[in-house]
Amino acid sequence: MTAKPTPMTKVTFEALGVEALATAEGRVAVVLSPDAKMDAAAQRINELTQGALERLVRMAATKDSADFKPGGVITLSVPANMAADALDVVCLSHSGSVEDARKAGAALAKVRGTADMLIAMGDIGHAAELGFGLVMRDYGFNAHKTDAKPAAGAVRIMCAKPEEVQAAAAPLMAVAEGAFFTRDLVNEPANVLTTTEFADRLKAMEDIGLKVEVLEEDALASLGMGSLLCVGQGSDSPSKVVVMHWNGGPEGEAPLALVGKGVVFDTGGISLKPGAGMEDMTMDMGGAGVVAGVMRALALRKAKANVIGLVGLVENMPSGNAVRPGDVVTSMKGDTIEVINTDAEGRLVLCDVMWYAQERFKPAGMIDLATLTGAIIIGLGHENAGVFSNDDDLCNAFLKSAATENEGAWRMPLGKAYDEQLKSRIADMKNVGGRPAGSITAAQFLKRFVKDEMPWIHLDIAGVASVKTDTTLAPKGATGWGVAALNRLVADKFESK
Ligand code: BES
Ligand code: MN
Ligand code: ZN
Questions:
Q1: What is the model's pTM?
Q2: SS3 readout for 376-409
Q3: 177-494 sits in which CATH class?
Q4: CATH of domain 11-160
């Protein structure tokens, strides 16, 4: 099955042309500052509609309406003397933040449907960011809807200095395309997104300039990845590790390594999960999905950095061959692990991929992402990912990137004392530490596979990778959380300027 990626709305930027405001079909949107001062485009629209725009905004202002605030939209249907079916008015101040501009764009995406849209922004800044917000919010996973309408409708934004804005928008659209790639992977059901299909979709990224290697089970066995391999041994789908290389930086410069948990479905294995809600475990490859999306964004915008993305792709199934509670496996590092609970499989996958990443690439830093624990959802809900790190500099840089991109991230503690909970009677460690501090003991387990002096961040994204309500920049389902933050971290900390 060849999956078609969810198409991205096409946004173009052009100089103000008052004629088009009257003749444009579909929808016309006008961006006004909170003082409702009318620029040339707004004045023209006001003339055409015989003062309706002015009345509309005045009415909204007297009612102290939430619609004429950042994030709100007021719609006037079938405006007089305009070919458009609707006139949408959004509010954004000249001094508005990037976040407000994205919100305004997202609000327009929600009202647009499949219509064409012409947006008059005048000289209010952040036109590229408004476009980014619109594109990010304009996502729908329709791969399995037989009645889905073909994607339609283009968006034009009239703004000052359109060439400059177009140039500023290009890297943002690369991030959006990366996030769409992540969302498509995370939303895809497990019968479609098998380990093989996942690896194939990553391999196809060679078309955009990445080098992609797929390591099969025999290679993983030769490397000694007994921990990773035990997770997939009950599944008919073969376990794989995929290595994506982006070498945009100076030759020989140590890369950043991004490592993702790619459990294409997590039944829990022999430690079977309860039936209710098990279908959500199609998203248990969310970490690998984000790594893939970041690599895509970096390649599309030709980032001047060396970054390696590694994902461990497995399926956690119960069967006659499945790993049992009580089994002892040997990791690539050589440490032995007593598998107490086959549902704590993510750490078993990550520890081998992390060790391999460090041995082979000697990275300058390593960041792993995983939908690792239900406990992080108890602690932080769906607003923040858990951030664990052994390096304050790298950690603070990431937290700053995440804050700039408005992607929730909250630092959690590590500590030697937690290691007590991982002691095994018969092996070097066990794979679970009991109920207390479940996310921290999981991170503490991973830390054993981080070399001394290796700057490292572990991101537990179980609560943020896929959510059941709409968010500002995404409809419910996969969010693509982390693609923008990690792209920014690379740009700000790893890219040669
Ligand atoms: N994939 C789950 C974690 C998860 C839970 C992700 C909910 C997304 C939403 C992970 O493999 C798991 O099962 N973790 C166990 C660990 C436990 C057995 C120590 C958990 O959180 O219950
Ligand atoms: Mn599990
Ligand atoms: Zn899992």
A1: 0.98
A2: HHHHHCCCCEEEEECCHHHHHHHHHHHHHCCCCE
A3: alpha beta
A4: 3.40.220.10
